[in-house]
Amino acid sequence: MSQRSLISDSELQRRPVLYRVVLWSLALLFVALFVFPLYWMVTGAVKTPLELAQPVPTLVPHSWHPETYADAWRKLEIGRYLFNTTFYAIGGWLFQLTVDVAAAYALSKLRPRFGNLVLGGMLASLMLPAAALLVPSYLTVADVPLLHLNLLNTPWALWLPGAANAFNIYVLKRFFDQIPDELLDSAGIDGAGRLRMLWHVVLPLSRPVLAVVSIFAIIGAWKDFLWPLLVLQDPSTQTVSVALSRLAFNGYVTPNEMFAGLAIASIPMVVVFAVFQRSILSGLSAGALKG
Amino acid sequence: MATLTPIRPARPVTTAAARGRTKRRIADNVHAYLFLAAGLLCFGLFSWWPLVKGIMLAFQQDNFVTEPEWVGFTNFQAVLDDPLFWTAWKNTLEFTGLALVFGYLVPFGVAIVIHELRHLKGFFRFAVYLPVMLPPIVTVILWQYFYDPGNGLFNALLSALHLPESGWTQSPKMVMISLVLVSTWANMGGATIMYLAGLASIPGELYEAAELDGASVWRRIRHVTLPQMRFILLVLLLLQIVATMQVFIEPYQLTGTTNPDSITVMVLIYRYAFTVNNDFGMAAAMSVLLFVVLGAFSAVYLRLTRRAS
What we know:
Chain A: InterPro entries: MetI-like, MetI-like_sf. Chain A: Keywords: Cell membrane, Membrane, Transmembrane, Transmembrane helix, Transport. The structure holds 2 protein chains of 2 kinds. Chain A is an all-alpha fold. Chain A contains 15 helices and no strands. Chain A folds into 2 domains: 63 residues, no CATH class; 170 residues, MetI-like (MetI-like fold), CATH 1.10.3720. Helix content of chain A is 73%, strand content 0%. Chain A is flat and about 75 Å long. By secondary structure, chain B is mainly α. In chain B, strands 1-2 form a two-stranded antiparallel ribbon. The radius of gyration of chain B is 27 Å and the shape is flat. Classes of the chains: A mainly alpha, B mainly alpha.
């Protein structure tokens, strides 16, 4: 039994009809608002363009053409773009995790001189709205200072800037701070080096926070639009989002094929949500309470 | 306070031990900075340097062939002289204002109701967060079909209800509202889930006491829920303002980069830098202005959250 909230159970029991009405109308509203548009997208794909163009829309498809999904897959080259997106997301996740875990570990457990200055500099970047840095970041990626590399149209243009994630470092460092130094010291006496302490002591204890950071890294990469739009202008390197935006409403595909493309592009993250719903929602809730 | 220095017993300092300690401290620092190296490189190149570069760029004219030329406030002057500058700010503020009503207050009401329900809670949380999981461009393209004034779903619904149809994104009056509606649909799940977490952390005794005092449900919301939620309401308010002032994807996809009825600050920056003119100087000047406005909000947000933790 959870603790009571605004309205007590006994108050609620006095108004059973009102409660039922509110519950079911809200449920209906949520289905109409949040589930129906997705139903429309998935079923819109199997209708003919003619049916979609009718002035009175059909709730249940009259025509039934599931092969539109195959057509859309081929015409929109979704396989290639899904592969690109997945490749960027997984690579970006690995870079974020490696770079940010190492940095957070150094700042939390090795505590070098000027560590606080470094942390402050990293956290200061949280104050910079991404948008304000868009143009100089683009120019930096087009011509990396000192190295004079052009990263445009390469995965590095997403991976390297993505690894500079102050929020991850902040969350990871706060978690690492709670691991007692004595655990590391006793491992040190046993002759473990800094890397082995991280690998055998810190990381196994940090599984929950690593899971949350990982899920949000993958989701973030999948949802990203503006940055990939700028740095991946070569169509063959684009993510599924950028490609769909480029191919929509230019007469190249019919509306039903576009619906199929949109539905296919949504599936991976909807599956991730269905599987990891608990971690995602509780990660978000924990973030809300701790700020 | 420095008058009472504790007297240490004189201790014979063995130079060898001291040297060993220094050596170890240096070794520790070297190790630590090895772990930090990749992070420093990424932050240095892709976060700190762009900040410097962005400010420099705002005061330069750069054709990327010859050396950039310092031009003082010319770029800012050019931006301020652009009639679209004020239009973009007006539209952006309109979007932010409308988004506060739809995307900030509505989820709060929804969260309060869901929190009181004793059934289907899992469904409500899943449904409201489902759109957040879709790639934003998928949502916007889908809604682009819904908004179609010819045979879109929304006008079909309106005419089925015998209501006047709308031009939606093609009507100057409705375009900003249309953008806010998509954006709210796509993002309100995050705010709702966070409000629900906040509501769940309010101690039940407070409501108990209020009820014993004879407070009605409304008065309990007013005197218990609102004060208890003050912090999270403020944090989400600032986050929401900072996020919505950077709105890009909705106007970009739904109305393009040239429509004065819906151009926003971010779209204008994109337009300066990446469409016909490639005027990075003007784009950087506009970015600096946006940064000053948003930086203030971000700073307040960080102060609040740091103090709380």
